[in-house]
Structure formats: structure tokens, C-alpha cells
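task queued by scheduler; priority normal; single chain, no ligands, no partner chains; default sampling; output format set to C-alpha cells
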Amino acid sequence: MTEILASKNLVATRLAEVAEGILVHKKRGITPKMRVFLVGANPASLVYIGHKERKAKSLGIDFELVQLNDDNASEAELEKRLEKAIIDTNHDDSIHGTFIQLPLPKSFSRQKFFNLIDPKKDLDCFHSLNIGKVYFGNNDLLAPCTPKGILTLLKDSKIEMHGKKITVIGRSHIVGRPMAMMLNNENATVNLCHRYTKNLSEHTKNADIIISAVGKPRFLTAEYFRDDQSQVLVDIGITKVDGKICGDMDYDNLIGKVKAITPVPGGVGPLTVLSLMENLVTLLNMD
């Protein structure tokens, strides 16, 4: 029988711990606050920001959106405004954590702006100094939110990573690459696949755990996996098709063929938001 790795109960438990951490700082006279930057008015981005804002406020965290959205401004002007806004935030002691809601316009250098953020306020852990600490083995404190959430889920579900063969599909700097590093820190043997990987099914069938961040709805069908109920599937993809949210995995047709699988929605997404809140507590505790 396939185990459904829903995250609801885990997230509720961990958020209660976050709330306790926030309360400690409030008793010291500190009101934790996070600020998010958004360039433009991407509808999906606004939805994601709304989720994060509601969760933050429910935990007693102040939340501020800085939206740079002027139809008459050039992208060069928007870059200057974003740069100034980040620098101002770095010097604002009332802001304890900040992040940029992606995507940014294609002409923007993402890493340039990630590195403008003060590493001590870097909620997404994308600053080169912070991601460098992950490279050298630090999984336990500040870490990129989605990979951190996935490790939280796997550990809570008692899914062994040590010595296991894990295939990660998607090599973005946001998810795939840090995910591979963090799994390697857990002593897994990691295979990082991407759009140019040949014979992808050979890699997926040979893995104990498969983590997909492709963004193609139901791309990974039963043909990509063994049917011996021994594999664990983690689905990061999220796409709306005909009004329904689905992931990279052909979820309905994989039930009964794999050991465990995350649902979409209700799997990785809430863990990403959880990790953002946990990172804020980490940053507060570093002060």
C-alpha cells in the first residue's frame, strides 16, 4: 500500500514550535518582521505572497510587501528601485528577514539581487555566503526553503537517505542544485538530472527516492518507475490544468505502485512556507 506523504500534521506541529520561538522574542520587546519584494504583478506570485502573509500574521509576525510595479518605468529603472529598496531594508533594524518573490524579469541578474540582501536577513538562503555554508555541510540551520522542507518531511516520515540512491530532476539554483547538495550532506548518492539528460527513465528506475521539480503536469508516468512498491516520490511541481492543481507525477496512476508519494496540493508547498518561517526564527536567534 502506498503511503501518502501529506504534510498537514507535520506543518501544524512545526508551526507551533515557530510560534513559541516568535513569542520568546516578543517577550523581549522585539516584534519579528519580514519584508518581501515583488517586481511586477504576476498573479501567481501574488497568490504565493498571500499564503505567506497569512501564515506569518497567524504566528505574530509582521509582514510587508514592497511591490515595484510602474508600467511607465523601464526595467533599468525598476532595477535601480529594487536595489535601493534592498539596501534600505538592510539598514532598517525593524526588518529581521527579507526575500525576493520570484520570478524576476528575465533581464535582471537574480544572483546580483540575492547577494545585495544582508546575509543576516536572507530568508531564502540564496546569498552566496549562506548557500556556501550549505555547500560545506550545514543543513540544520538556514537553508533554501523547498529543499529544507523536503528534508524535514523525509526525516519525519522515517525515510532513510543515508546510502540511498536519489535522483533529483531539475537543476535550478532555487531547488534542484541546493537539494542535491543537501542530500549529499545526508550521505545519499545523488544523481542530478535535467532537460538534456538522456534516457531519464533509466535514472528514475534505478533510484530509491525520486524528487522532481520540472513543472510539467503529470510528466512522470508509471513507465518511469518500478512497480515493486519500493520507491519514494517527492513532487515539487505545481501546475494548474483545467482548473485543477497537479504536479509532475501522474499521481492517480502511481498509487499502489510505489512505496510513498507526496500529494499535490498538500505535500511540498506547505513545507516551503514552513521553512520560510523557521528561517526567520533562525535569523532572529543569530542576533
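post-processing summary
- The chain has two domains: 28-119, 144-268.
- The chain has a mean pLDDT of 95.
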